[in-house]
Amino acid sequence: MAESPTAVAGSTFSPPSKLAQVGLQGGVSPAKLAAASRNGTALIAVAQALGGGWAKVMALSIALSVIATTGTGIVLSVRIAYGMASYRAPTSPLAKVSGRFNTPAIASIVVGVLLIAITWIHLLATPCRTPSTT
Fold it and tell me: How many domains does the chain have?
């Protein structure tokens, strides 16, 4: 089932996102933006160029976006594992639903353990970067 053209157009061409994209072009010099992007703070550099407390607002919005995206990813992963197990694709224990919470408990635990393991593997395999003082 395909999405309606209205839904796609509404999500792709929303006025606030386009206003921000067009309005912030040229707000920061390319050299400053390149230096900020090396540290992963390009959006905060743009917010600082706007002045005031916009840097804190931008940092908060980025943090909230990451938290929401992570939560959505976890829920979707559990639902995919549960749906596949319902058709006996991986294993049927993942399809068990908790009688108390009416949720796929075993699938939630398996996805949670996998995400924690992947996170620790990433954290242990990634070298620490010290902030540059230049």
Answer: 1
